[in-house]
Amino acid sequence: MGNKTKQNKKRFFYPDEFERVLDHCNKNQRYTAMTMINTGRRINEVRYIRKNNLNHERKSIVIEQTKVRAKLGERTPQPMTIAVSNKFMNYLKDKIETHRILSTNAFNVGLKDACVKAKINNPEQFSSHNIRKTFGTWMLALGVDGFKLAQHLGHTPNELAKDYATNDVFSHKDKTIMRSILGNLPDRFFPDRRYWIGYQLNFLCV
After folding, report:
1. What is the pLDDT of residue 160?
2. Is 88 in contact with 185 (CB distance < 8 Å)?
3. SS3 180
4. Using N-to-C axis directions, what is the helix angle for 146-153 and 128-141, rounded to 10°?
5. Quick one: how far is CA 185 from the chain centroid?
6. Hey, which of 88, 117, 161, 167 has its CA 20 to 30 A from 146?
7. HEC profile for 103-170?
8. How many helices (H) and strands (E) does the chain have?
9. What DSSP state is assigned to residue 68?
């Protein structure tokens, strides 16, 4: 198939499309895709996740190799800690020592092949970046706070609004599949319930 891409950066996977693609991935392709969709991080960032980067108690991962954002004055990668779901932490615990994250080129070739087999429209437009786009789109659709999501992705809120926000085109079934894949991660982005209830009461009393 070749390794050239005509990537459409606006394209994301619908939940049923993503499941169909996973069905046509081999072991390491699936592991790479699952790690990206459950973290929202770039493939060159998740490639360096090791067992010692996992905090099982806090359900978090330290991403040591992040993209250097020159616009923000960064000159070296800035490690960051991100939350993951209970479900994905257990997934990593079982597979991190027996599976590996593929190189960008190898994964992109495999992803396109899986898209063809899954009968996804315009498979040549998909690359690893579209899984990151899918993560952000799904999280917004599930009601995640945009400011917190922007921090998680390493974006500014303006970048998030420009590149990830979309009309809510998802059905109840779509959102059920999203939650089956993302586990309880969206819930970890919501404001503290006590704070939110207090805010609502103050608003109603004004």
Report:
1. 78
2. yes
3. helix
4. 160
5. 10
6. 88
7. CHHHHHHHHHHHHHHCCCCCHHHCCHHHHHHHHHHHHHHCCCCHHHHHHHHCCCHHHHHHHCCCCCCC
8. 10, 3
9. -
In Å, what is the CA distance from 171 to each residue of 14, 50, 142, 168?
10, 36, 11, 9
Q: What is the pLDDT of residue 70?
A: 43
Q: What is the DSSP letter of 102?
A: P
Question: Given this model, what pLDDT does residue 191 score?
Answer: 60
Q: Mean pLDDT in runs of 10 for the chain (206 residues)?
A: 57 96 98 98 94 96 75 67 96 97 97 98 94 94 89 82 78 96 93 45 42
Topology of domain 15-205, CATH? hpI Integrase; Chain A (1.10.443)
Which two tokens mark 68? 């250097």
Contacts by 114-118, CB closer than 8 A, 24 or more apart: 114/21, 114/22, 114/24, 114/25, 114/29, 115/21, 116/1, 117/24, 118/17, 118/20, 118/21, 118/23, 118/24
